[in-house]
Amino acid sequence: MPGEGGGATLTPQPRARLLGSVLAGAAFALVAFATAPVAALVSRMCWRSSGVTVPYGLALSAAGSMALVALARASSRLHGFVAGGAWLVGLAAVVRSTAGGGFLVAGDSLGWAFLVVDTVGVLAVLLWGGGRR
Q: What is the pTM of this model?
């Protein structure tokens, strides 16, 4: 008989649910990994008018990155951590590829602001409400 001998078996429905969860986690990870370089590029956008510079790209990159992690976390807490981790790995790949500053993350105030604001934002969304639900 199935299930005898102490071994647990999965019926087709839990297998499908597990496969769906793994595929969703992989999709969130892939999109989050690709979002970090795009966010770095978008964060460079500024509106300049009569001596005033408004870094609207920084707000857009932070909002997009945070929204992606929030969407993944709304699916499940594990998906949120997968997406947040993939975003951080993508960011590390961007920073590593531009040693000493470069096109995506320059060593200027906008580059440092991107690193701080977006990373803190993603971590805040990821870790917000850590208690049991």
A: 0.79
